UniProtKB/TrEMBL annotation:
CDD domains: RecA-like_BCS1. GO terms for molecular function: ATP binding; ATP hydrolysis activity. One of its GO terms (biological process) is response to stress. Belongs to the AAA ATPase family. BCS1 subfamily. Its cofactor is Mg(2+). InterPro entries: AAA+_ATPase (IPR003593), AAA_N_dom (IPR025753), At3g28540-like_C (IPR058017), ATPase_AAA_core (IPR003959), ATPase_AAA_CS (IPR003960), Mitochondrial_chaperone_BCS1 (IPR050747), P-loop_NTPase (IPR027417). This is AAA+ ATPase domain-containing protein. Residues 274-418 form the AAA+ ATPase domain. It catalyses: ATP + H2O = ADP + phosphate + H(+). It comes from Sorghum bicolor (Sorghum). Keywords: ATP-binding, Magnesium, Nucleotide-binding.
Length: 506
């Protein structure tokens, strides 16, 4: 056989083989775009087929199924759809209007009204970075941010979103310039949170603003004239930082106050009046008045400094005490000097008739039992969150009725200047924590009775710490000498103050 005769056929075979190889190569190297196009074509084809079937099925159903059956199917389909689709959330909106005071003046100066309270509250919640436009108002150091009319912001309370919108007033209705201010604040929220908005969120705003205003206000000290109080601004600079006393004692007072403030619910539950009594005792110049001022500054409570020598009748005392608001401190200084030495027992032994006389206008004079009864009785129930402080230089002269447990909850001894108190004073006056003369002064302090007031006076003699400490060392040396010559031996048991908590606060 001629080998050439088989050539063409082998050429065809070769050509066919190479074509199939090319096709195979093309299939292997098909680019992703081409694959996507193929997939798209397949999908379109499938969709067209499905659509055709649906149209056919609907046509057949229309032809074959009776009208009632079709209506039932439609109803079932809509029911399923309603179940699957989330229901539109119902919203509620509270409109808070800015009402004018009588005489057309707007309620705008923070003087009251829910509108102002909400504005003040929102000023603390606004995120300046999240708002495109903001209003800045106020002057001096007090500036507040608020939303522009037409803007809105979201506040989250207890995990729930509350949306606030500022809506412009309708100034076009009136030519009156004041009308520009009749804007409203609108609070919107999901309907299911209506109770929360009204019963918790809005009261929370009101309480937050009231507290912020209280912390912001200037403190006042009231003094009694007759049966009324007269207040002046109270700028006593004493704070717990500046008070020179044993750090542990100081901390225990601060902790006690903090606990007291948090205990509204607790006092209600146990059926006790929400008040706390402190008896501060110790020699003159040890800082009792300074501690009272520090407590007032810490709590931001106004002080009511009661001068009992000004009060002649129990009825006047009752009027004064009833006139004290919540969150205030009643101070009676030198309580040992306020009453005659007549003991509570003797007072209790008085006949009914004499007691009646002592509580009427016919017999002037305030009795200790009258004061205590009123503080424990009516006064306790007519207000909340009140502190009573008695001070004395002579605790041993006090009537036992004042000292019995439950009356003055905490007894605080303000003692002579010890080492820690001295270091606080030097830090306050010279901003130094250590000095070459400290060891010498520490030694001297351990042997003399010197009050923080005396030490303060010496430190004030010079602005130069070296000179002032030299003056103090000399003063302490002289005191020590005088005491040695007088043969007095110092007991410094209470040098830095001792605390005696009569009723342990749970
Ligand atoms: N513990 C203290 N810490 C800081 N300063 C004090 C302290 N004690 C006294 N001082 C200084 O002495 C001055 C008088 O003190 P303060 O009136 O507080 O003492 P007091 O114990 O209330 O005296 P008195 O019993 O005479 O009323 C204060 O203004 C203060 O400058």
């Amino acid at each position: 056989m001629d080998p050439s005769a088989s050539k063409p056929s082998s050429g065809l075979v070769a050509a066919a083989t190479s074509a199939s190889m090319e096709a195979a190569a093309t299939a292997v190297t098909l680019p992703p775009l081409a694959k996507a196009v193929d997939a798209y074509k397949t999908a379109v084809g499938t969709a067209a087929t499905v659509t055709t079937y649906v149209v056919l099925a609907r046509g057949m159903a229309r032809e074959l199924l009776p009208h009632d059956l079709r209506a039932a199917a439609r109803w079932a389909a809509s029911l399923i759809r309603a179940r699957l689709e989330p229901a539109p959330v119902e919203r509620r909106t509270l409109v808070i209007k800015r009402f004018p005071y009588s005489g057309g003046q707007l309620d705008s100066g923070g003087g009251g009204g829910l509108y102002d309270e909400v504005r003040e509250y929102l000023a603390t919640r606004i995120d300046p970075h999240a708002m495109r436009r903001l209003c800045l108002r106020g002057g001096g150091t007090k500036k507040t941010l608020s939303m522009e009319d037409g803007d809105s912001m979201t506040d989250v309370f207890d995990g729930v979103k509350f949306k606030w919108a500022s809506v412009a007033g309708q100034s076009s209705k009136s030519k009156n310039a004041n009308a520009n201010g009749y804007g409203t604040l609108e609070l919107s929220f999901d309907a299911e949170h209506t109770d929360m908005a009204l019963e918790r969120y809005v009261p929370f705003i009101t309480a937050t603003v009231a507290e912020a205003r209280r912390m912001d206000r200037a403190l006042q000290i009231f003094m009694n004239e007759g049966s009324s109080w007269h207040g002046i601004n109270h700028h006593h600079p004493a704070t717990f930082d500046t008070l020179a006393m044993d750090p542990a004692l100081k901390q225990s007072i601060v902790d006690d106050l903090d606990r007291f403030l948090k205990r509204r619910g607790y006092y209600r539950r146990i059926g006790k009046a929400w008040k706390r009594g402190y008896l501060l005792y110790g020699p003159p110049g040890t800082g009792k008045s300074s501690l009272v001022a520090a407590m007032a500054n810490y709590l931001r409570f106004n002080l009511y400094d009661l001068d009992l020598s000004e009060v002649r009748y129990n009825i006047a005392l009752q009027r004064l005490l009833s006139g004290m608001p919540n969150k205030s401190i009643l101070v009676i200084e030198d309580i040992d000097c306020c009453f005659s030495t007549k003991s509570r027992k003797e007072e209790d032994d008085l006949s009914d008739q004499s007691r009646l006389r002592s509580s009427t206008h016919s017999q002037p004079g305030i009795t200790l039992s009258g004061l205590l009864n009123f503080i424990d009785g009516l006064w306790s129930t007519s207000g909340e969150e009140r502190i009573i402080i008695f001070t004395t230089n002579y605790k041993d002269r006090l009537d036992p009725a004042l000292l019995r447990p439950g009356r003055m909850d905490m007894h605080v001894y303000m003692g002579y200047c010890g080492w820690e108190a001295f270091k606080t004073l030097v830090r306050n006056y010279f901003l130094v924590d250590d000095h070459a003369r400290f060891p010498e002064i520490q030694q001297l302090l351990s042997g003399v009775e010197v009050t923080p007031a005396e030490v303060s006076e010496m430190l004030l003699r010079s602005e130069d710490v070296d000179v002032a400490l030299g003056v103090l060392a000399e003063f302490l040396g002289e005191k020590k000498q005088a005491m040695c010559e007088g043969g007095s031996v110092q007991s410094h048991q209470e040098a830095e103050g001792v605390i005696c908590d009569r009723t342990v606060m749970p």
